[in-house]
Amino acid sequence: MELTQTEYELKDGVALIRLNRPDQLNAFTPVMREELIHLFQEADRDDAVRVVVITGNGRAFCAGADLSGGGSTFDRAQREGREIRLSEHRDGGGQVSLAVFNCRKPVIAAINGPAVGIGITMTLPMDIRIAAIDAKIGFVFARRGVVPEACSSWFLPRIVGISKAAELVLTGRIFRAAEEAHSGLFNHVLPPELVLSKALSVAREIADHTSAVSVTLSKALLWHGLAEGDPQSVHLIDSRVFFWAGKNPDAYEGVQSFLEKRPPKFPLSPTKDLPDFYPWWKEPKV
Fold first, then answer.
1. 13 and 68, same structural domain?
2. Count of domains in the chain?
3. Residue that finishes a domain, picked among 178, 207, 236
4. What does the pLDDT look like over 190-243, one tens digit per residue?
């Protein structure tokens, strides 16, 4: 796919995606949506990618949906000039969030500037969020006459708790990242010039020192454990995954490299070597 509103670079296992509409503060469009979905699907399939980092070109991360179309911006039927059945509509932000969520690689958001509306909700399924201390953030949907999208009503309460999520969503207020530095919304809040370097440093730590298969399985255990009803059910899943992992070459290499005081060289690949019961959360419940 030819990229016109994003940029993509892969170096030493770290894929860097840049939102690239700097003159429009990287406002989200249907084109950007399709490019992001494509890039996250490609990163998922590419064993050369260990970690994905996403940031914005210019002074913003993403200022939200492009509103230049006026009042009908969110009225798809009006915009496309045809009748659209409810059953055929799928939220574009949600499609991006699901592409991020389904990516087996860790995803780090380097929020270098304003992130409003879809600009912040698209980061919620990302595993780590690093924000500029003065970045303007806002879940502004109620102030635009719409509702939270991009699966954010699932992600946000799990990240910050239901009461904090309600405050952020129901007020629709704009706040600085520094105001929510301790809410769990961000892993790190830093001066803007340090945001991307910190994200790349965390990415480098993952890429250089961990098993790709272990990271994929660990990410799945964390996210899908949120949907389990009690610790006992998680214990059964942990036991199954750990038993499988312990028999495989990456576990042998992890222990041996530690004993020999050398960097590990893990042989397994997340596209070829995952257990036959992955994805376990899609198995029928018995």
1. yes
2. 2
3. 207
4. 999 999 999 999 999 999 999 999 999 999 999 999 999 999 999 999 999 999
Give 125's DSSP letter: T
Contact 250, 213 (CB under 8 A): yes
Per DSSP (E only), the strands in 113-223 are 115-116, 128-132, 136-138, 174-176, 188-190
- E strands, the chain, where? 6-11, 14-19, 51-56, 107-111, 115-116, 128-132, 136-138, 174-176, 188-190
For 41, the token pair is 């699907």
pLDDT tens string 155-203 = 999 999 999 999 999 999 999 999 999 999 999 999 999 999 999 999 9
Instruction: Report the CATH number that the domain containing residue 135 is assigned in CATH.
Output: 3.90.226.10
- How far does Cα 278 stand from its chain's mean position? 20
Same domain, 186 and 244: no
Residue 1 is assigned to a structural domain of this protein: no
Q: How many angstroms separate the CA atoms of 93 and 126, rounded?
A: 13
Distance CA 108, CA 124 (A): 10
Q: Which domain holds residue 123?
A: 6-207
pLDDT digits (tens, 9 = 90+) for 36-73: 999 999 999 999 999 999 999 999 999 998 877 776 66
Residues 242, 225, single domain; the answer is yes
